[in-house]
Amino acid sequence: MQRTPPDILPVDWPIEQAEPSWPTEQALDRATRVLIAGGLVAIPTETVYGLAAVALDSMAVQKIFAAKGRPQTNPLIVHVADVAMARSLAGDWPAAAETICELLWPGPITVVVPRAAIVPDVVTAGGSTVALRCPEHRLTRRLIAKLGVPLAAPSANRSLGLSPTTAGHVAESLGNRVDLILDGGPCRHGIESTVVDCTTTPPRILRLGPIHRDQLEKVLGQSVVITSFHGEGTPSQIASGAVARSPGMLVRHYAPRTPLQLSTCSAQCIARLVQSGKRVGWLTFQDEKSQLTALAASPSVIILPMPLDPDVFASQLYATLHAIDQRQLDMIVVDMPPATDAWGAIRDRLTRASIGPQEKDSRSHDSSTTHTNAFEETA
Ligand code: TXA
Ligand code: MG
Question: N or C: which end of the chain has fewer CB within 10 A?
Answer without folding.
Answer: N
